[in-house]
Amino acid sequence: MSTSKPRIAIVGYGSQGRAHALNLRDSGFDVTIGLRPGGPTEIKARADGFAVKTPAEAVKGAELVAVLTPDMVQPQLYGEVIEPNIAPGACLLFAHGFNVHYEQINPRDDLDVVLVAPKGPGALVRREYEIGRGVPSVYAIHQDRSGNAEALALAYCGGIGGARQNAIKTTFKEETETDLFGEQAVLCGGATKLVQAGWETLVEAGYQPEVAYYECLHELKLIVDLFYEGGITRMHEFISETAQYGALTRGSYVIDDNAKAQMKKVLEEIQDGTFARQWIAEYAAGNANYKAMKQGDLDHPIEAVGKKLRANMKWLANAPQPQAAARP
Ligand code: NAD
Ligand code: MG
Ligand code: MG
Ligand code: MG
Ligand code: MG
């Protein structure tokens, strides 16, 4: 097979799948999409001009199969569709190490098995590619039967634009554990709770909910943009002396030794498999707790306040559409 331009099947056309497919095609790869007929994203893939086949047919014709469905459906998909159809010696690629690391998928012995994980949501992977940049990506090799697994991972990484930035070599274990930790403790879990608790504190003290929204949620973007461009150093260059002194003396009231001890607990539950077992059991039982807790976030009063305020921020109409919503 061609190591520099393997024939690719992408199974799944959601956040990552669509971005990878569009970027790889623009990079000159032959890309086929595997989707369940009548599934929710089939129309989108066809509208984008891709050949869409059933997952089984797409897998059969490919030299490299990228598994870009939700993590929880991958084990059954692998067992029922991928393993029976994937060509001997082909390359199996994941964008997150979860199923291989926690042994929910044990790939066939003859396959190359690699990971290419962009460190950003799909919409950003596409947007950065279009403007000639790329989202930083990590890659890893789980099985190298052909002797070309690393070259294949790097070809894919280059094709989605990830190698334009530093592609960092990692392991399935490191990618899985750090990705879960980041989204749980800092990016999604931590940030959400920080914003909600800050807003609640101001509103409970009698301040206007709208003013509290701007201070605790809206302005977070300005700070995060500074982090993104130049780290915490850049934030200190741009905020007032008063804000700096307040941050330096009061930040650790909130994120104190106890908060850090809790972060260690989050990490331990990832490392010892507690989190994975709990999430797999929740999914298998129909996601009742997951759905109820998510509804709690959607029903939090800060959401109604924000919806009303954002209706008057006309520039947000041009903001990336929901599919851009970060799903690290
Ligand atoms: P998604 O939920 O956005 O999209 C899933 C796609 O899979 C949809 O097209 C859906 O129709 C399809 N699908 C669902 N069940 C299927 C089945 N049984 N057979 C065939 N197709 C099926 O998923 P996503 O967020 O892009 O995640 C894909 C992978 O990328 C995951 O491993 C995830 O951990 C990883 N990842 C995601 C992000 C992110 O920001 N979303 C970032 C890095 C890595
Ligand atoms: Mg302020
Ligand atoms: Mg200020
Ligand atoms: Mg992530
Ligand atoms: Mg993740």
The CATH superfamily label of the largest domain reads NAD(P)-binding Rossmann-like Domain
- Outline the biggest β-sheet: 8 strands, mixed
Mean pLDDT: 95
Proper CATH architecture of the largest domain = 3-Layer(aba) Sandwich
Question: H/E series, N to C?
Answer: EHEHEHEHEHEHEHEHHHHHHHHH
Helix content: 55-70%
Q: Which regions are unreliable across 5 or more consecutive residues at pLDDT < 50?
A: 322-328
Radius of gyration: 22 Å
The percent range for strand residues is: 5-15%
Bound ligands, named by name, code or SMILES: nicotinamide-adenine-dinucleotide, magnesium ion
Notes on the structure:
By secondary structure, the chain is of the alpha/beta class. It has two domains: 8-171, Rossmann fold (3-Layer(aba) Sandwich), CATH 3.40.50; 180-322, no CATH class. 56% of the residues lie in helices and 11% in strands. The protein has helices at residues 15-26, 42-47, 55-60, 74-85, 98-101, 122-130, 149-159, 172-187, 189-204, 209-218, 220-238, 241-254, 257-271, 274-284, 288-299, 301-310, and strands spanning 8-11, 31-34, 51-53, 64-67, 91-94, 112-118, 137-143, 168-169. An eight-stranded mixed β-sheet has the order 3-2-1-4-5-6-7-8. Strand 5, helix 5 (98-101) and strand 6 (112-118) form a beta-alpha-beta unit. Helix 1 packs parallel to helix 6, helix 8 (172-187) packs antiparallel against helix 13 and helix 9 (189-204) runs antiparallel to helix 10. The longest helix is centred in the last third of the chain and has 19 residues, at 220-238. It is globular. The two termini are 32 Å apart. 31% of the residues are buried. Mean pLDDT is 95; it is low at 322-328. One magnesium ion binds next to loops.
